[in-house]
Amino acid sequence: MTNLWRSTTVGSLKLSHRLAMAPMTRSRALPDGTPGNLSAEYYAQRASLGLLISEGTQPSDDGQGYLTTPGIYTNKHVEGWQKIADKVHAAGGYLFIQLMHAGRMSHPNNTPHHRQPVAPSAIAPGVQMFTANGKLDIPVPRELSRAEIKETVEDFRKAAAAAIKAGADGVEIHGANGYLIHQFFGENSNFRTDEYGGSIENRARFSIEVAKAVVKEIGADRTGFRISPGLPIGGIDEGRSGSDLYRYLIPKLADLNLAYIHVAHGGNDELLREIRSAWPNTLLVNRAGRPLEDIVVDIDAGLADIAPVGSWALANPDLVERLKLDAPLNEPDRATFYGGDSRGYTDYPTMDKQQKVKISHGK
């Protein structure tokens, strides 16, 4: 794993290694979307990972999809994220807040205004989601008007500004995993006949407008973008033109000189090689379900600069130290991934704490 410990950069940030914390929904915000009291401790515990990409954070009321996810569009939200940013920085890490508009991946029971979800087209994803009333079918969304699309771009811009005001080092635009931007990409989720639907150029238009607005507001070196080529999450089918859409999109984002692209890799290695070739800046690659011993494979192959880590980072606040020492890891407790209190959130032990417990028990 030698290459894992080489220094690198993201935008203007200097990182001492090639690991990062992947964005993970934890559903522990207050009802108004303000990050909960334990969130600052949770993120600061993991600061040794260097670059921390936050859980998906809605840029507006309409952007919320799941219960008790955080927002970044009110003064209270900014105050909550400021506490997190301050603690992360004090612990030596950097924080990028992921801006996630859920689009149709939502339910009226989960949002503050209880309105119908919005999307490029009035097409339900055909899946269920957890709500305050249990697991329910996601309803048919309302199609965004052209004016509302412009307003949503503005919501992303304002959220990016709020993130920087809160002390974050940057933002990651969530263009993946079945959420709003990805819904514009999908051939089966975008039936629009205006300039936001139909051709590859039109289906990519919204994502590029969001990226341009964010870059203009906070700077390219503070802006990342997440994609998930070929992943059928949230009922999305990119169709035969899916790979071609990314072949068009990546150079457009490269023209904006974004700090990084974050690929949730679905297994198309040929496309990943093309993205690597077309992308001049830092590339993050997260292969779902990869064994820990393969974490450096893409870096060794020159296909990635940074390897984001999800559940292993969740369960091991000192993951960097454990990997360097080849120490045993805590196992993630999936029952505590979403919602709840400190259990499965801030109570995973570090090696030091585990050693103290062994000593106190005479082991």
Can you give a write-up of this model?
- There is one protein chain.
- This protein is an alpha/beta fold and 363 residues long.
- Helices cover 33% and strands 15% of the residues.
- It has one domain: TIM Barrel (Alpha-Beta Barrel), CATH 3.20.20.
- Helix 5 (200-218) packs parallel to helix 6.
- The two termini are 31 Å apart.
- Mean pLDDT is 95; it is low at 356-361.
Strand content: 15-25%
Q: Largest sheet, described in full?
A: 8 strands, parallel
The strand count comes to 14
| CATH superfamily placement | Aldolase class I
User: Into which percent range does the helicity of residues fall?
Assistant: 25-40%
Uncertain segments: 356-361
CATH fold-level topology: TIM Barrel
Give me the CATH architecture, please: Alpha-Beta Barrel
CATH classification, class level: Alpha Beta
**Topology as H/E string?**
EEEHEHEEEEEHEHHEHEHEHEHHH
Number of domains: 1
Distance N terminus to C terminus?
Answer: 31 Å
Structural class: alpha/beta
The spatial strand order of the largest sheet comes to 13-12-11-10-5-4-3-14
Q: What's the mean pLDDT score?
A: 95
